Amino acid sequence: MADAVKEPFQNDDLVTARLRKLAAIRDLGIDPFPRNFDRTHLSSQVLAKFEQLEGTTVHVAGRLVGAIRHMGKAGFAHLLDRDGRIQVFFKRDVLGDEGFSLYRLLDVGDFIGVEGTPFRTKTGDVTVEAREITFLAKAIRPLPEKWHGLTDAETRQRQRYLDLIANDDVRTLFDNRSRAIRAIREFLHQRDFVEVETPILQSVAAGAAARPFSTHSNALDDTLYLRIAIELYLKRCIVGGIERVFEIGRVFRNEGLSFKHNPEFTMMELYQAYADYTDIMELVESLVAHVAETVLGMTRVTWRGEPIDLAPPWPRRSLRQLLIDHTGVDYEAYRDDASLRAAAATAGLGVDPAWNRAKVIDELMSTYVEPRLITPTFVVDYPTETTPLAKRRPDHPEEVERFEAYIGGMEVANAFTELNDPLDQRVRLEEQAAQHAAGDEDAQALDWDFLEAIEHGMPPTGGLGLGIDRIIMVLADRQSIRDVILFPQLRSRDRDG
Q: Which overall architecture, per CATH, does domain 2-137 show?
């Protein structure tokens, strides 16, 4: 059995040396993988309450990091727990021969528990003097060398656990991500929203213009899709009388990768009955400011070296005027697909002959306008064909009451006054379904059950989709979505290569 375990590591001298130490620990009669340890204090508590704890007994536990400094009959090491690090002092006279023998078998990366007393060294460092060591887990593989750091992006994203061990700021980032999501929930609960869970596996991929992932259900003998949006099920909740509803969850789109796109990402979607898109604008700017205040203690953040203030109110800019200002193209002057494609090409956009008006407008926006919207901005009022689920503007029926919120040159939220006229909705979704049948994989499929739901009556409603990952990018000043997702999608690695 031992030889079978060693075989995968036979060409790795560092691992072989650790396996020998593991065997030596067992030879001491010690279980190197016990079931628990009664920790009484975290590192932060010992450091913060040193004056009260000095000379008393504490039990700390964590991973050995940094370097183990051997000094004859004594030595120092650092323990890393969820709150940070604390120094531990090992002395043969205190530990005894057996305890000190165990200390000499420790490696960086091992988990141990320490019973000891806090004291301050001559250099002023708060330290725990170990009276007893409890071995908790052996690290067979060595950690990255801390003094070189873990900087390779591929390694950091593929082996996030090493990134978390080696880089304190990464642990802080993901702690802040958790706090941000909690702050979103608290904000919405204070406004009487109800949190629900809706299906991830769906029979129709609808609610957004995106390509889905598909799978086969053996039990149903049917094709199912990972959801591309949460929208249509939350609207069913509105129909059913849950007047303020939200969900935070994973969404999946079978599309390309970029600094702001990952095939699976986290969305918060909400719907509020008797509200329109102006109400949702106020909610968004208040929500984002609240999250920043909760996580960072202020609404001011830095993005690529530039200061941004997330405090409301955010300016409102019309999509049509922004496109005129930055491209010279007024889409209202070009009423058909071909003429708008030609105008966009003249403006310098690389145009696909298959693009319709909605696609051309979207590409003009993402290419020429979006990168310029660094400070928080609401872009409002979109052509009807771009947004089949939104209500028309009463003063301008060829546009819908929609906004997108931009920060740092990227869209962070999309919202509209929801279309609740089931007859108008049927016509628009049938048009989308026809485009889908003609080969447009991004066009929405037709969800007949959703149409039937709103035919039972849906009140006026404002809806919102908020990109959690992109909000975290802004708060943390990270320029890649992969940096704020614990385990981003990466190309499969050949284990035998």
A: Beta Barrel (2.40)
